[in-house]
Amino acid sequence: MIPDQRFVNLPKSFWACVKTLSQKVGYAKKGSILTPSVRTMAEAFSDLNLDTTSLFKDGQATSLGQNLEEYFQYRSKVLHEIVEPNLMNLDRAKAEFYRLKEEFAPTCPLPMNKQSGSKKDHNFLTGIVNMVIANALGEEKCNFDPRELTTVTINNVPSRTLSRRVDGAFPTPVNPIAIWEIKEYYYTTTFGSRIADGVYETLLDGLELEELKDSEGVDVEHYLMVDAYDTWWKDGKSYLCRMVDMVNMKYVDEVLFGYESVTELPRICSGWLSKAQIRLTQ
């Protein structure tokens, strides 16, 4: 899922309103993502002792109110029409993993999960992501399991080092073109703080990369891949909303939901290869 250009580069105050209203009105109800009207938003502002005229004045929605209403409608539409259909359950993810494994005969890492007994198997989304990337990149170098912090250097001296290790980097975690995080929870039965923290970890990475780009002009592409229908759609709709927000705030270039890792990664990798060729000529 890519950002909608209508909402890219909006001021941070817009996103403050999105978060405040989402908290007050709610993210979802009875299986549907909520789309508050401008009047509903104004009522929420009133309850919070905030300036309602910033949203609704003289019987008319302000430009801020209109933009917020359009954004909430967009967020609901993209979640229902793109995100939900692409999220895979355990059986679908397992079948797709083994289909790709047979098709690609991969040599890239295919890590195992931490389950036991009959549940012990590969990390299906991680394996899917690794196989698709490896196939798209061909002989190009790629680190599928960086065990070090991401570092960007200037004049061969570290300029920024991110706070967290990531799940993958192209070509390496030192001066990468792209980094990514993978969150799969096929065996999870409850939506706990560990899952929620995964979203906030990606936000932290995005904030650090934003500062790097603003201060040093260095752009590192940043991706998040998530899957598990029950975890995210049935129990975690509010966090799906937050992911859509992060994409449009440009804290992550794209979020790939479930099967999108198969359909969209080849296009993304093509962009990485183009950037790698440009590096060689510099």
Average per-residue pLDDT, rounded, comes to 96
How many beta-strand runs?
10
**Helix coverage percent of residues?**
40-55%
CATH class bucket of the largest domain: Alpha Beta
- Major sheet, described briefly? 4 strands, mixed
Unreliable parts? none
The fold-level CATH name of the largest domain is Restriction Endonuclease
What best-fitting shape do the alpha-carbon axes yield? Answer: globular
CATH architecture of the largest domain: 3-Layer(aba) Sandwich
Q: What series of H and E elements makes up the topology? A: HEEHEEHHHEEEEHEHHEHH
Q: What portion of residues belong to β-strands?
A: 5-15%
* Distance separating the two termini: 31 Å
Radius of gyration: 20 Å
Spatial strand sequence of the major β-sheet: 7-8-9-10
- Overall tally of domains: 2
Label the structural class.
Answer: alpha/beta
Number of helices: 10
